[in-house]
Amino acid sequence: MRSHTHDPKLRRARALFGALIALMGAAASARASSWEQEIDRALQQPALQGARVGVLVVSARDGRVVYERLAERVFVPASNQKILTAIGALEAFGPAHRFETTVYADRLPTESGQVGWLAVRGGGDPSLTSEQWWRLAADLRLAGLRSVTGAVLLDDSAFDRHRWNRGWGTLTARAYHAPVSALAANYSSFSVTVRPGSSVGAPARVEIDPPVPYLALTQTAMTTPGRGAKLTVRRVREQTFERVEVSGGVGVHAKPEVFYRSVVDPVRYAGAVFRMQLEANGIRVSGEDRPSPIPDKATELLRFEGKSMSDVVELLGKYSTNVIAESLLKAMGARATGEAGSWPNGIAALQQHLATLRIPLGDHRLTDGSGLSRSNRLSPRLIVTALQRARGSFRFGGEFVSALPIAGTDGTLRKRAQASTGRIRAKTGLLDGVLGLSGYAERSDGNEFVFSILVNDHKASDEAAMAAVDNLAAAIVLQPPGLSGN
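Below the sequence we write its predicted structure tokens.
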């Protein structure tokens, strides 16, 4: 019998098959190269010229690197740092954890519902809004409280008293520079809405939300001709309140303008919101608000549970709220040490939780939880590693991924990356000259990627630079014809 090994027809068939496989591989390689060339072209956009740009894209399926550029270099990450803070908080507390705000009094309410003093201790909940403070007050009413004859004591001792991180540089009154406190309301910020008066020369109409006496309005803004507006909104700290000064002019045909500002004293502000909601529930308060530790002889009236950690992380991811990130960082520090939460013990706790998840920081640098500081240094490689570990976590992976903004749909990406609508979930980042976009991308063939884009030292406008980064992300989502299965 003749061996098949020496069959000339079989050898020719095998040679043809091998050549076909080689051609298919070359074609696939060419298509992959074409995809990489699209990313390279996106990096050549004018808005990115002269900037330092780090990019890493890996396959979500097997971790294979499909594109990289300066992936090991460290960059100022801006709010991409919140990725690490969110992962650390979910690892430390779990997605179902709820921060507690505890209310005490000198005694249980009498038959008429009266107590002497009332005290509230903040548990570090960064998501308490006016609506939740109303619910807390309503629960006190259900517990029988009707009047407080003495003071309302405000205890924020769960965190230290350093309200702003030294690495933030020059502080402003903008809401993103809100102070950090264990007892807070409305992200330690408020809004001012300015509308034109009924006619030219009339005073502008100004509303502060929430309408608490702690925010005292001084209004000199006037109604001017046309549709334009030139307004200034300042807040000035007084001894027991803050003065909100609104000046300038707003056109008689102008649309309402909304300004968001931070408070200076988050504890007194939270006390004012609490008092407003007590009174809204028919609970009279006769005394003053006073920052104070809880007296030794105190009777607990209520433990109020806030939003779940998964909801808090979603607020952090979708809207990039700095004060949430910093509060979570200090809460991690307090939990780890049993002492007042601070930036130093919070950073140490975050590093430990990241190490547990096999996210080694090495020479990377963390200064805060939000990324506001320009002293932070992260690489695309580290961020991609963190995103991979989070996605693969059974404990909190689903909650983390769902907390990221969706391109062209919601959060900080609602009006961005519309060429990639629904195909990118990613955390944004923005400081002067700094941009970041890191997360997950899906091609139309179902293949998924984990990516990080960090841009430092760009000279373009924020709008132009963000558009360039969005185009770069769109190039990642782009699927070259026939590349399915890579």
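Residues 390 and 397 are 5 Å apart (CA to CA).
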